[in-house]
Give the backbone structure.
Amino acid sequence: MKILHIIPSYLPARLASGPIIPTHNLNKELVKKGFEVVVYTTNLDGAKILNVPLNQEVDIDGVKVFYFPISFRSWQYSFALHRALAKNIKNFDLIHITSVFLSASTLGAYYAKKFKKPYIISPHGSLMSDPLSRHSLKKKIYLNLIEKKNLKDAAVHFLVDQEKDDYLKAGLLLKKAIIIPNGFSPEEFNAGTSDVPNIDVNARTSDVQKLDFRQRFGISTDKKIILFLARLHPIKGLDTLIPALAEVIKKEPKAVLVLVGPDENNYKKEIELEIRNWKLEINKDIVFTGMLVGEDKISAYKESDVFVLPSYSENFGMAVVEAMCFGLPVIITKNVGISLRVEKAGAGIVIEKDEKQLAEAILKILNNPNLGKEMGEKGKKLIETEFSSEKVAERWIEEYKSLI
């Protein structure tokens, strides 16, 4: 079987984040199982341009990746990619598109239909209620004029049931639904790096690594680390987390909040302004690390006591999966797509988006290390049984075969 995966950005892109790593996890597992997987993408990484070979095959873990130069950033359009699709899409058995609201879905759907090829669109949460409510008029116009045509004949992939429910509530046509979560592999921490070999998520962090991580960010060895790992953006719920931290500090002064992630649209300044406006004396209890990758990211997970993600909306929550993989108890809102599975497995605490509930949940875990350890073990078991890249790839193979 020959599969073409169309995605606006791909490894080694990092700033675009989101679907890139899960998509590559799937693709490399498919290659291991004997499938030929080709990726058409651009040289775009957020606002940056990747330094990659253009218009030629690049091998990444056996996946054949073609990077095409970006022509118009606003639609993430590449004339060269457009031309390649028109010429080559007829040579594939199935087209998998990971994108909406961009040229990738429109071009991919158009040529798939033209050459009568089955195709899948993976929105990765972009068509859920909360994302659709942001810039709603522009998105509504685009949906009605363009995206509905792309989706009408597609098999649409959802990560969780809630994503499918939101899609249907939006009044969008659904020919076929596929519900498969993102797959996770510890190897993904190596993605785009060459200096992080053979990650062992069960290995204890050495005293040197602990000291290096804490010294780098000015965290004393007696501090209990609350980890938030996501882009700094209003949708991630920091307006709940910051005041909740103030309540936690009153009862557990050794707690420290570590915010790991890129600063999107200068949101860090807004957070700092809110801290001043709320007259919260917690500046010394918050550490901004910026984006961490490789060993730094691994150290953040291994050094932390609890992971928190109080999002307004999260189609899945890949960072939650990563945290569970490292045995961290997690605290997430019901708005995080993976919340039902976490709650059922007993791998963490699921709350409403409420600062009091969040503070109580954090204190419950910080004050009960054995409870946190028990939740962490259940989280690791959940990853092994439901979210391993191999198991997810097997489910995808069944769907691909049924479509063809």
Remarks:
- The CA atoms of residues 34 and 358 lie 46 Å apart.
- The chain has a mean pLDDT of 92.
- The two ends are 9 Å apart (CA to CA).
- The chain has two domains: 2-183+389-403, 196-387.
